[in-house]
Amino acid sequence: MTEAILVSCADDSPAGWTCDVTVGTDAAATGHRVTVSQDLLASLRPGTTDPTDLVRDSFAFLLAR
Length: 65
Hints:
alpha+beta
């Protein structure tokens, strides 16, 4: 079963974004805060202006390992 990964990103221009991530939906859910710079988003997801999918995909990758 795949963990639920909820991501909410706020624009912190010009630096980039601050994203709050919740992994899971029960009492054992964990919360995380990550930052994504504009340069990182441009490098990993060219043409994208919202880091939400990048952050969600990154957490899914890490959880699978």
